[in-house]
Amino acid sequence: xxxxxxxxxxxxxxxxxxxxxxxxxxxxxxxxxxxxxxxxxxxxxxxxxxxxxxxxxxxxxxxxxxxxxxxxxxxxxxxxxxxxxxxxxxxxxxxxxxxxxxxxxxxxxxxxxxxxxxxxxxxxxxxxxxxxxxxxxxxxxxxxxxxxxxxxxxxxxxxxxxxxxxxxxxxxxxxxxxxxxxxxxxxxxxxxxxxxxxxxxxxxxxxxxxxxxxxxxxxxxxxxxxxxxxxxxxxxxxxxxxxxxxxxxxxxxxxxxxxxxxxxxxxxxxxxxxxxxxxxxxxxxxxxxxxxxxxxxxxxxxxxxxxxxxxxxxxxxxxxxxxxxxxxxxxxxxxxxxxxxxxxxxxxxxxxxxxxxxxxxxxxxxxxxxxxxxxxxxxxxxxxxxxxxxxxxxxxxxxxxxxxxxxxxxxxxxxxxxxxxxxxxxxxxxxxxxxxxxxxxxxxxxxxxxxxxxxxxxxxxxxxxxxxxxxxxxxxxxxxxxxxxxxxxxxxxxxxxxxxxxxxxxxxxxxxxxxxxxxxxxxxxxxxxxxxxxxxxxxxxxxxxxxxxxxxxxxxxxxxxxxxxxxxxxxxxxxxxxxxxxxxxxxxxxxxxxxxxxxxxxxxxxxxxxxxxxxxxxxxxxxxxxxxxxxxxxxxxxxxxxxxxxxxxxxxxxxxxxxxxxxxxxxxxxxxxxxxxxxxxxxxxxxxxxxxxxxxxxxxxxxxxxxxxxxxxxxxxxxxxxxxxxxxxxxxxxxxxxxxxxxxxxxxxxxxxxxxxxxxxxxxxxxxxxxxxxxxxxxxxxxxxxxxxxxxxxxxxxxxxxxxxxxxxxxxxxxxxxxxxxxxxxxxxxxxxxxxxxxxxxxxxxxxxxxxxxxxxxxxxxxxxxxxxxxxxxxxxxxxxxxxxxxxxxxxxxxxxxxxxxxxxxxxxxxxxxxxxxxxxxxxxxxxxxxxxxxxxxxxxxxxxxxxxxxxxxxxxxxxxxxxxxxxxxxxxxxxxxxxxxxxxxxxxxxxxxxxxxxxxxxxxxxxxxxxxxxxxxxxxxxxxxxxxxxxxxxxxxxxxxxxxxxxxxxxxxxxxxxxxxxxxxxxxxxxxxxxxxxxxxxxxxxxxxxxxxxxxxxxxxxxxxxxxxxxxxxxxxxxxxxxxxxxxxxxxxxxxxxxxxxxxxxxxxxxxxxxxxxxxxxxxxxxxxxxxxxxxxxxxxxxxxxxxxxxxxxxxxxxxxxxxxxxxxxxxxxxxxxxxxxxxxxxxxxxxxxxxxxxxxxxxxxxxxxxxxxxxxxxxxxxxxxxxxxxxxxxxxxxxxxxxxxxxxxxxxxxxxxxxxxxxxxxxxxxxxxxxxxxxxxxxxxxxxxxxxxxxxxxxxxxxxxxxxxxxxxxxxxxxxxxxxxxxxxxxxxxxxxxxxxxxxxxxxxxxxxxxxxxxxxxxxxxxxxxxxxxxxxxxxxxxxxxxxxxxxxxxxxxxxxxxxxxxxxxxxxxxxxxxxxxxxxxxxxxxxxxxxxxxxxxxxxxxxxxxxxxxxxxxxxxxxxxxxxxxxxxxxxxxxxxxxxxxxxx
Length: 1532
What we know:
Blueprint: H1 5-14, H2 18-30, H3 42-46, H4 50-76, H5 80-98, H6 114-121, H7 126-145, H8 158-162, H9 180-189, H10 211-227, H11 236-245, H12 249-261, E1 266-270, E2 279-280, E3 289-292, E4 304-307, E5 315-321, H13 328-336, E6 365-370, E7 385-393, H14 398-407, E8 410-415, H15 420-427, E9 435-440, H16 447-461, E10 468-470, H17 477-492, H18 504-510, E11 514-515, H19 520-533, H20 539-546, H21 553-566, H22 573-591, H23 597-607, H24 611-647, H25 651-664, H26 668-687, H27 701-710, E12 715-718, H28 727-740, E13 747-754, H29 760-768, E14 783-789, H30 792-798, E15 802-808, H31 822-836, E16 839-845, H32 849-868, E17 874-880, H33 887-890, H34 892-911, E18 933-936, H35 951-974, H36 980-996, H37 1006-1042, H38 1051-1082, H39 1094-1122, H40 1126-1134, H41 1138-1153, H42 1163-1197, H43 1208-1222, H44 1225-1233, H45 1235-1254, H46 1256-1279, H47 1285-1293, H48 1301-1313, H49 1321-1346, H50 1350-1356, H51 1361-1370, E19 1430-1433, E20 1436-1439, E21 1443-1446, E22 1449-1452, H52 1465-1473, H53 1475-1482, H54 1498-1508, H55 1517-1522
Parallel strand pairs: 2-11, 5-7, 5-8, 8-9, 9-10, 13-15, 13-16, 16-17, 17-18
Antiparallel strand pairs: 1-2, 1-6, 3-4, 6-7, 12-14, 14-15, 19-20, 21-22
C-alpha cells in the first residue's frame, strides 16, 4: 500500500525516543509558521502520543506543510538526519504520485539507482525545489542571526578585515550571535587556535518566551534543554559556512590558508546553501603550500614543498551511515594526532560549542592532511595522505558521498547497524574501484540483520575479513585508534589510486557539483596566465631574457649612478665624467630596447582586465610561477649540495653555488620588478630626450599598481636584484595612490628589520592580516610595502589615514654573508628602512641580545644623522621563540648589558658627527628597555609539519599590536605625520643621501672603524703575548741545550726538542684563538659587527704559528750545532763585553776581599771569587741580554708612546701627520719610495729618544738582574742539604743560566777539600755568596751596563725591540701597485687589502711597468690612484681597481675605512708644495695641477687626513698627537 504523508510523519515521530519526543512537542508549540496557518495549542500537544501529534500536524497544516514544519522542528532539536530522511521520503512520495511508473522496491538492488536520483536533482522539479527553499530559509535564518545579510550582495573582502579600527586593539570575545563571524575572522587571521569557539560570553540571545511558556519549558526539560537551545549559540561549522558564503573568492583563500596554518580541517565541499548543488572549494585552497619529508627522503634529509591541491596522494574518507553513538570527527582527530601532540583537526561534539546542533552545515565535507616529518619513530604514516570527513548521514547526502567514493582510495563507513534500505543504497556502489571498510561500535543494533546484509555486501563491495573493524570490549580507545592507524598505514603502502584535489574537479563537474574556480573571470585570467607560463622552460633564462633589461642593464645603470654619486672611481672631475659616460652608454642601450614578449603579455593582463579579473590574474600568476619554480628547486638543491661537498667549504664558492638556486625563485614580484625597471628606463629616456612623451607606452602602469596597493598587494620599494630604489616608479605609483585617496593620505610607517628567516613576514602578516610572501625558498629580497586603511572612526585618534607596513630582506643572509658587498647591502637596507619608518620592529630569533646589537650597530650612523634633522624613530625589539614566562625578567641583565657597548659606540660615532653633542644610545633612538622588549613564543606548537600554530604566539603578537596602537596614538599627537607627497619626497631625499654618502656604508663609518681598530688592537696584544711566550720558552730551551754535555745532544734530542716546540706552539695558538672567541662571545667592543674579520684573524694566527715554527725549529738546530764543546760556549759567553767590563769588575771584587771574611790568601775564598767571575758573572750578563729585548718591547708598548703603534692605520696617520708638520721633502721621498726603511728608521729613532730621556733601560736591567739573583738564592737554599750540592744547584738553574760545568766541578772539588778545615764548608760558601759576592757582583754588572750607551745596548740585544714593534705595524707587506701606499689591513694573511688614503701616481718614482703618466708626456701625473689603467701582460688585460698585486698575484682590495680612492686634500697639498722638487727628483717636468689645489692650506690638509683616519683616532688629530709625549724627529 502506498504511504501517505501521515504515514511518513508517524514513522518519523515513532523513531524519536521519549525525551526527544517531549522536546519535539515543546519546540513545535513555539515553531514559526506561515501567517495563514493556525498554531497548535499546547493543551492539544501536551499529552499527545505520536499518532495524536501526526494527526494534529495534518489537520492544522496539511500533508505538505505539515511535513515541512516537522522537518524544521526536527532540525531544531538536533535530529537532522531524521529530518533529512523525512524530507527526502516525502519528496519521493510526491514525485511517485505524479509519475505513472511504479515505485521501485528498495529490496531489489538491481532496480534502485541512487545516482539517477542525483542526476534528477540536477534539474529540480517544483517539489525538489522545496528542499532547496528549506535550505535557503535555514541559511537566511543563520545569516540573520549572524547579521551577515548585507554581505550576500556585497561580499566581504580581505581589506575589510585589514582595516584598522578601535576594535583592532581590543581583546575580542563574542557576546551576541552577530559577533561570531567577526570573532572567527579576527581570530583565524591572527592564527589563534580558539577561532572556532562560538560560545557567547554573556548569556543567550534570540526570541524570548513568555513566563508561562518558560515555566512549562523548565518543567519539561529543565536545564538540559536550555543548553541545547540553538538560539543561544551556533555550531562552529555553521559559522564557517556562513562566513564563506559571504566572502569573496580571495578572502575565502585567505581564510583557508590561515585555517591550514592552525591545522584546522578545511571545507572541501560546501553544502548547497543558496545554490542548487554543493560547491567544491578548489580555488579557495590554491594558496596552501606545505612542507614535509617522506620517508623516501629521510636519509638524504631532503623535503618536498608543494601546493597541497596539486599533490597526488591517497585520500581516505570517513562517512556515517545512520546514527552513531560516538563521534566520528573526534575519532579522526585521534587517528591523525601523535600521542604527545593531540590536536582537534575536525570540529566534534565534545569540543566547546561542538554540541550545538548544526543548522546549515550538514552535508559539509572537510579535508585534512597528514604530512610526515621523515622520522620513522614518530611518524604515523610514511607518506602524506588526505583525510576527508562528511558531516551528516550519507542517506541524506548521497551526492557528496558519491563524490567521495569516486575520488577516495578508501572509504570508512561508520555505522551501528545496516537495514534493508541502507543495504540497497550501498549495493548501488557495485563495481566501484574504491576500497570500503565498515567501522562498528562494540554494540551492534539488530546484529542478525546487520551481519546478514554485511554478508551480502562482501561480493558487492569486495569486502574481506579486514574490511570490517569492530571496536571490541577487549580494546580500549587507544588500542582501537592504533588498530585504525595500522589499517590506514597498510593502505598507503599498497597500490591504491592517488589523486590531487585539483584532479577531483573533473569528478565534481561530472556529478553536477559546482567548482568555485569555474567562474568566467577566474577562467579568463587562468587562460591569460597559461599563455605566459607556457613559454617558461628554463626559469633563470626566462628571468634573464624576459623580465629585465638585457644584460642586466638596470643593475649596471644603478651601479653607474651610485659611482657617479659616491665618486668611487676617482675624486675629481674625471670621476664624474667617466661615471656619466658609462651611464650615458647604458641609457643609449636602453633606448634601443623594446618590451619583451613576456612583459607585454603581463602588462596586457594587468591593463585590459577588470579589477576582479586582475586579482584573479595575479593570483594565477603566483600559483603557476610557484609551481614551475618549485619543480626545479629540488634538483638544483641536490646538485648544489653535491658540488659543495666536493669542493669544500669555500665561502665564495658556496655563494656561487647558491646563485642558481636564487635564480630559480620565480614569482609575481619578478614580473612587477621587471615592470618597474622598464618603466624607469622609459622615464629616463624621456628625460634624456631619447624618447618623446607621446611615444610612452607604460605611462598607465602606476595607476594599475596603485589600484593593486589599495587591494592589499605589496609593492616593491627596494629592488631585490640590484638593491636599488626605482625612484621614478615608486614616486609615480605613490602619486597615483594619493590621487585615488582624494588627498587624504597621512601615513604612519612601521617596518620590520632583522636576520633572515626570523619570522619577520609572518609577524606582520599575523599582526595586520597582510600577504607578504613567507614560503620557504622564497625569502624576501629587497623591501616591500603594503597599505593598511584606518577606519574613519579611528583616524582622529591615530591622527593618520593609513598605516604603511614595510617588510624587508633578512640581514646577514648566510648565502650572502661571505660576499664582498654583503655588509654594504645590509647597511644600506637598515639605514633606509629605519630612516623611512616611524616605528621599527627589530626582530630576532631566541633570547639573543648580541643579535640585536649586531643589527643596531649597522644603523647607528643613520640614527645620528636623523637626530640632526629632528627625526627620532622608535624601536620595538621582538625576541622570537622564547616561551618561558620569566623571559622578560631573566633577560633584564642582557638588556642593560646591551646598552653599555651601544653607548660606547654611539659616543664614538657622535664625536665625529658635526652638530651632535656627546650622546649615548637612548639619545638617538626612542626605546624603553622595559616596555619595548617583547618575548614571543615560537610559531609552532610542537614539531612541524603536523604542528598547529602556537596560541601563545598569536596572543603575544596581539599584545604587541595592541601596545603599538596605543604608542601610535601618543606618537602621532607629538609630531606631524607625512602624507604621501611628503613621504615620496622623503624617500627620494634619503635615498639620494645614501647614494652620495661615502661614510655611511663603510668602515670609515666611525663606530665601525672604532670597532675594527679595537678588535685588532686586542689581537695585537694577543699576538705579542704569543711571540713573547715563545721567546721566553725558546730562551729556556737554548739555555738548557747549552748546559748539556755534547754526548747527549744527538738527532734524537733534536727530534724531541722539535716535538716539544710544536706542542708549545699549538698550545699558544689555542690560547690566542680562545681569547679571540671569548672576546667575540662577550660582545666587547661590538665585534659582532666586524665578525667577518674573524676568519682573517684565524688565518693570521695560523700564519703566525707557521712563522714561529720555522723560526724556532731553525733556532733549535743552530743551538745543537753550535754546542760543539762546553769550553767553546763558555768562551763565547765570557767574551761578551769583557774588554769593557774587566777593570771595574776587578776593582769591585777587590773591595769584597777587604771585608770580614778570610784574606785573599785563603784558597777557599779565592776559589769562591773565581767561581763568581768565571761562572756566575757571564751567566748573569747573558741572562740580562737575552731578556732585556723582551722587557723593552713590553715596557714600550705599555707606555704612552705606544699609542702610535696601536694598529697600522694609527701608525700611518702618525707618520703622515708628522711629515706634514715637518714638511721635509726628503722625508716624503723616502716614505713614498722606500716605506719599509723609512718606518724602521722611525721606530728605531723613537725607541732611542724615549729611552735616552727616561733612562728606562737601566731600570729594566736592574729589575732583570734582581729577579735572576733571587732565583740563584732560591736555588742555593733548596740545594744546601743535597749531597751533590752544586749538581743540584745546576739543575735548578739549567733553563735560566748558562753555567760552565768546569767551574762548577772545580768549586765542588774545592768544597770537598776544605771539608776537614771547614766542617760546614757549604754553609760558608752560601754565606759568602749571599752576603758578599752576589751583592758585589750585582753592583759590578749594573755599573758595567751603566757605562754602555743606549744605542750600543739595543744594537747588541739578541731580540731586537725595533723589529718586534715593526712586526706590529708591518702587516702583510703589500703595497698598492700604482701609488705604493702600504696596506693597512690587520693581520698578515687577510684576503682583502685596504688603505685609508691613496696618493696621486706622480708622487711615486716612475718604473718601467707602471708608466701611465708618461703615456701622455714627460710631465708628472697628478691623477689619483685609479685602477682604470690596464697592465698588458701578453694577451691578458688585468684591471687593478679592486686589487693590490705582487708578482702577478691579483688580490682583491677593499677599504673598510672608505670605498672611494679619491685624492685627499692631504696629497693635493703635498703635491702642490713639492711639485718642482718631485719633478727634479724624478727627472720629469712639473705637473699641471688644477688651480683649486693652490688654495689648499696645511690646516686643510691635516683636516683631510683626520677625516680619512677618523675611525682610527677617537678624537681629532691634534689632540690625539698631544697624547704622544715625544715624537721622533727624523730629519733635521
